[in-house]
Amino acid sequence: MEIFIAQLINAIALGSIYALLVTGFNLLVVVGGIFPFAYSHIVVLSMYMCWFAMKVTGNSLLAGILAGVFSGTIFSFITEPIFRPLAKRQAQLGSFIVAMALALILTEVMAQKLNMGIVISIPQNLQGKEALIKFGAATITAGQIATILGSIASFLGFFYLLYRTKQGRAFRAMGQSPFSARLLGIPIVRTRIYSYIIAGLMGGISAIFLAMAIGTASSSLGDNLALKVMAVAMFAGVGNLGGGLVAALILGLAEGMVLAYLPGDWSQAIAFGMIMIIVMIRPKGLFGTMV
Amino acid sequence: MAKSNVLKVEDLHVSYGPIKALRGVSIEVNEGEIVVLIGANGAGKTTLVETILGITHVSAGRIHFMGEDITHKKTEHIVASGICLIPEGRGILPLMSVMENLLLGAHHFKGDPSENLKLIYSLFPVLKERTNQMAGTLSGGEQQMLSVARGLMSAPKLMMLDEPSLGLAPTIVKELFRRIIDLNRAGYTILLSEQNARQALQCAHRGYVFGTGEIVLSGNAQKLVSSSKVQQAYLGGSCE
Prior knowledge:
The complex is a heterodimer.
Chain A: H1 2-30, H2 39-56, H3 61-88, H4 92-112, E1 120-121, H5 124-127, E2 131-135, E3 138-141, H6 142-164, H7 166-176, H8 178-183, H9 188-214, E4 216-217, H10 221-236, H11 241-261, H12 267-281
Antiparallel strand pairs in A: 1-4, 2-3
Chain B: E1 5-16, E2 19-30, E3 34-38, H1 45-52, E4 60-65, E5 68-69, H2 75-81, E6 83-86, H3 98-105, H4 113-123, H5 125-129, H6 140-152, E7 158-162, H7 170-185, E8 190-194, H8 197-203, E9 206-210, E10 215-220, H9 221-226, H10 228-234
Parallel strand pairs in B: 3-8, 3-9, 6-7, 7-8
Antiparallel strand pairs in B: 1-2, 1-4, 4-5, 9-10
Helix pairs in contact in B: 3-6
């Protein structure tokens, strides 16, 4: 029983990270008007920046966290002009291709130039592997608690912004009808830029939690995450912000439980198998593609 | 008494690729007027109102609003300066509540939007009853009221309505035109684009008749109603 609870906490922490990633991804779909395949690659690049900042500051936690969050935000922000002409024409497929190109470039940069292509390992003090709670043979680590609480705080902040502020109203109006939003005088370009910044901020935060959870990062992690994020988004219904959150938690739980209780690593096959079945039964995803 | 000029469009040319949608259109709207644009589908009425709002690119010509040149300004600046468009098809946001739709109309309004809300609820009491309802669940007529009300939230100096009667039942259309006259009496200046020519002309002060991409006739609305040319082309008069 203790082991099960510990596994459950681990799975929830993993699901929270996916939820952050999917939410940022969906925000870019809905408001940014693109299919942001490279979003996860930007997150992995932010993990590298976090690692680098810690390396040069003698493992300063603060420097690492700030570097990760800040890089996510900045990297996301500077990709906006690349997608602007495509978003203007609502060319989602075109944006998908461009995002894949960007993802490939980022992957190769990480593989060739960062840490000479060697896998980076995150300093112990950021990983937070020390047991915070112990019961029987099971432990819950500081990193897991930080991830879950940090994610909850991020979601509260994000959904407050989305549903209780003028900016959030503008975001949702853009998602439902870019044309109506424009008629109402919502500054389209500026609102899109804000969505990149918010998505980047959430990406930066998830980079820190990923660094805690995985403890390492390599150039191939971007593709790996991108597939999962895309799949979770489809599972829930692309652009469905609330649905994406729920679907990400389901994926995290499934993956965590499979890793814990099945021999060998079947997590991908089972997670993606679930998604295939859902998309067969409900082509628009579990919750539909609604803003 | 000479009333001041709110909108002045001079020799406007607009093209969609090789297609010339507007060829030298000039119109004026004075303060306190209802001006109607009539003409067949595809004559360029929607293009004109969308170009005034900065949505479509101007090839040549000038647009002045309250004495200021707005020809190449961005839509958000034009809306902020006091023009609103109630678009064809209403353009409401179906998955947001009536209240949120109204608040979006006040995106640029500097001041307390609750004053505007009070006015809107007195004009359209049905919207008050439905404040928290999803806009997509309203009836067609109610959605049109919401679209007009949302425009009013910005306290506009010029309201443009594009085909507001489209898809509405005849009794609702009648009520809609009554509301437009009420709004005008309350001081709003209105530019109305309509295929429903007779009713639109009956509530307007002046009118412009669109041919394909150009204005073929203009003048006093009463005179246009009785003009044989307009009757033949748009009011179901006999064909030769």
